[in-house]
Design a protein that fits this description.
187 residues, alpha/beta, TIM Barrel, 2 domains, four-stranded parallel β-sheet, 45% helix
Length: 187
Amino acid sequence: LRDREMLAYYASRFPSVEINYTFRRFPTERTLATWREQTSEGFRFALKANQRITHVRRLADADEDIRDFLERCRVLGDRLGVVLYQCPPSLRYDRRLIEAFVGYLPPEPRTAMEFRHPSWREARELLQDLRLRRSAYTDEELAVWAESIRTALEAGRDVFCYFKHEDEGASPRMAERLARLVRHPAR
């Protein structure tokens, strides 16, 4: 496939994708409109928030950057599923910082936070943390994840689940296997 055909192909097989491109640069409205056009209704994008917000400003005084980033992202319309704010590994837990940061966020779109410094552990206990970061999982391990995901879906919760991208190309196969297990649990 040519590069410009990859997203449409991916979207024909999976209901969502996490975009890392937006971490490095603020997307143009034209780029976002192209992504929207290449996907069908029901597809959802998870956009990684720009590094200016998370790594340069370190979540502090980021209200204008958040507003600018989210304003651009509105081009995706209902295809914008969630914005992921991935904090740098050196960002320590700071209750006042996170309270101020959350105050900048509008009710929509949905927000996901990735806290990587160990000091956030106390905050993590309040959150559901489903991360598939390894490059390979057994069918038994995927079945455990599938059960957790199915339980959340049956409770009416939204679930965004992504596998770590690897050069070996195993992630799409594992994602397809997990999706089958969520739909049709092994008996």
